[in-house]
């Protein structure tokens, strides 16, 4: 004997499961694409220098406690890495055609600001 309500309940539960699986898969795909390859910070820095000629031009601490570093090459390629407190570093973004700021205000500001006090 099949109870009418149970068939409907089964369909609703399947729908909820499918929606939950879809949501989880979407979240995982989004999180995975947000940050690139990860590894020890020293390995990432060596890779940037050896393969792209990039050196660090700036760094800061994010509100989440990550060290954010920008690496740039003389050819104009650039990379942003995030280093977590546990030592894992990940490529956050990269690109080309980096142009340093040469505005008078920026140059003067950076010259006058004591180290560690640039916000």
Task: Tell me briefly what this model is.
The chain is an alpha+beta fold.
Keywords:
single chain; 119 residues; alpha+beta; 5 strands
Description:
The chain has a domain at 35-112. The chain is elongated. A hairpin with a 4-residue loop joins strand 4 (78-83) and strand 5 (88-95). Strands 1-5-4-3-2 form a five-stranded antiparallel sheet. Residues 25-34 have low confidence and may be disordered. With 119 residues, it is an alpha+beta fold. 44% of the residues lie in helices and 25% in strands. It is built from three helices and five strands.
Low-confidence stretches: 25-34
Q: What percentage of the residues does DSSP assign to strands (E)?
A: 25-35%
* Molecular shape: elongated
Average pLDDT score:
76
Q: Helical stretch count?
A: 3
Measured distance between first and last alpha carbons: 71 Å
Cα-atom radius of gyration: 24 Å
With strands numbered from the N-terminus, the spatial order across the biggest sheet is 1-5-4-3-2
Number of extended strands:
5
Write the layout of secondary structure elements.
Blueprint: H1 4-34, E1 38-40, H2 41-52, E2 55-61, E3 67-72, E4 78-83, E5 88-95, H3 104-112
Antiparallel strand pairs: 1-5, 2-3, 3-4, 4-5
